[in-house]
Specification:
Blueprint (H helix, E strand, L loop, with lengths): L4 E6 L2 E6 L2 H10 L26 H11 L5 H27 L4 E2 H18 L10 H13 L2 H9 L1 H6 L7 H20 L7 H10 L5 H32 L1 H14 L9 H6 L1 H13 L6 E4 L4 E3 L2 E3 L4 E4 L1 H5 L18 H4 L20 H18 E5 L9 E2 L5 E2 L4 E6 L1
Parallel strand pairs: 2-7
Antiparallel strand pairs: 1-2, 3-11, 4-7, 5-6, 8-11, 9-10
Helix pairs in contact: 3-4, 3-16, 4-10, 5-8, 9-10, 10-13, 10-16, 11-13
The structure holds protoporphyrin IX containing FE.
Length: 419
């Protein structure tokens, strides 16, 4: 009989590891009321760490209802042009590398791009990360310090002790700085009667309608940073890596871009990007091979019995997304990068609940479309203008830096040619 689950202890806390798609379906969807928590850590001593990702129970449910309308396709369309603007300094940066015949560091370039998008869409100011990396450094500090492995594991495994010790989730100094910038943006818009089509504006509207308060507004902006910034940058880096490594796929993607853009006036626009089917297939395969979030977390909130086993209340559930994505039973030759797995014909053959790059069920990624949109804008603008090859310094097998988010451990160096 096929093994359906396993388990580990972190400190004294038990963790249940389902590895059967049926278990995943049960936990993520069918019996969601038993597994509604994520069991992450936040503390009332740092109110800005209390957000949609970290909260559980009633508080999570209220926040999810408040924020879901912010992620509709029409709201995302409103942010599209801001993303396009952010590609311009990126293009200049790549051209400079080309002119100086220097390899381009894909990871660094993707991070600067997502920093600029995060700055304009979320914090309401221009960061010019391709020229100066002050914000980049602040955001990275917040991410690096808040996801330090041992400290985070301690907080997740023993949240009451961590709360008693007042261990903050986010590094206070850098977080305060970013929050101060944010307050200034909100104030500036209010005093100058400015309205925009960005994420910050949607939050300001919720605040003006008394749906959320200023602390909740700041908390959600920081969440965008923690949930969306590094995941998106990592996905862009991995997609460029695979395109550089698979020249035929890169050429096919470029052909699609060149065929579709003329019907939309030659410029990258929302509808043109939505029309690019091969782009979607390449992105889906990138997220299969390199899921930025390599596992999903749930917390069992009341005892639950399935088949012959009882999962006890307070048990943490870890669904191993990356393990499923590399299981040859579901994805033959899993090491091969093959976007055809996601063609119209083939994608219906994928076993449900074995492909989980954005999670599943009521607690799935609320920013999935936004994240995908950002990756697509960056990659289309890149591939339309530049041919990329892997620099000989990039070696395989690829090494990952991982705990919460899967990122490439070493630089992904690309050699650039103009198209
Ligand atoms: C390629 C980019 C992204 C990837 C791969 C990704 C992946 C994920 C995954 C796997 C989860 C956990 C889902 C679950 O437990 O079932 C998640 C949750 C979440 N993500 Fe994303 N994400 C991305 C981009 C974004 C962006 C741009 C945002 C912007 C706000 C975002 C916001 C969130 C939030 C708020 C949650 C928690 C949802 C909840 O608990 O209700 N993500 N993401």
């Amino acid at each position: 009989m096929r093994v359906q689950y396993g388990g580990v202890y972190i400190y004294t806390s038990p963790m249940f590891l389902p590895i059967d798609p049926e278990f995943n379906k049960e936990i993520l969807i069918k019996s969601f009321q038993y597994f509604q928590g994520r069991g992450f850590y936040s503390t009332e001593h740092q109110p800005v760490s209390e957000n949609l990702f970290t909260k559980d129970g009633e508080k999570w449910s209220i926040l999810r209802t408040k924020f879901t309308p912010m992620f509709t396709p029409s709201k995302l369309k409103g942010m599209f042009n801001l993303m396009i603007e952010a590609t311009k300094p990126m293009e200049k940066y790549i051209k400079e590398h080309h002119n100086k015949q220097m390899p381009l560091n894909a990871k660094d370039c993707a991070t600067r791009f997502t920093t600029d998008v995060t700055a304009t869409c979320v914090f309401g100011f221009e960061s010019n990360s391709f020229l100066d990396d002050i914000l980049l450094k602040q955001l990275n500090e917040i991410l690096v310090k808040s996801t330090r492995l041992l400290r985070l594991l301690f907080c997740i495994a023993l949240p009451k002790v961590a709360n008693f010790l007042r261990i903050p989730l986010l590094p206070p100094q850098e977080t305060d700085l970013v929050c101060k910038n944010l307050e200034e943006s909100v104030k500036y818009r209010r005093e100058n009667n400015i309205t925009k089509t960005d994420f910050l504006q949607l939050l300001i509207d919720l605040k003006n309608n008394s749906v959320i308060n200023l602390t909740e507004l700041k908390a959600q902006c920081l969440l965008f940073l923690i949930g969306g910034y590094e995941t998106t940058a990592a996905t862009i880096s991995f997609m460029l890596l695979e395109l550089a490594h698979n020249q035929d796929i890169q050429e096919k993607l470029r052909t699609e871009i060149n065929e579709i853009l003329p019907s939309y006036g030659g410029e990258i626009c929302y509808d043109a990007v939505m029309d690019m089917k091969y782009l979607e297939m390449v992105l889906c395969e990138t997220l299969r091979k390199h899921p930025a979030a390599p596992f999903l977390l749930r917390k069992c909130v009341k005892d639950f019995t399935i088949n012959d086993i009882t999962i006890e209340r307070n048990t943490t559930i870890v669904i191993p997304t990356i393990g499923l994505h590399y299981d040859p039973e579901y994805y033959p030759k899993p090491d091969v990068f093959d976007p055809e797995r996601f063609s119209d014909t083939n994608k219906n053959k994928i076993v449900p609940y074995t492909y989980l790059p954005f999670g599943e069920g009521p607690r799935n990624c609320i920013g999935d479309r936004l994240g995908k949109q950002q990756v697509k804008v960056a990659v289309v603008s890149f591939i339309q203008q530049f041919k990329i090859k892997l620099n000989p310094e990039v070696t395989f097998p690829l090494e990952y830096d991982t705990f919460m988010i899967l990122t490439p451990k070493r630089d992904i160096l690309l050699d650039i040619e103009l198209v």
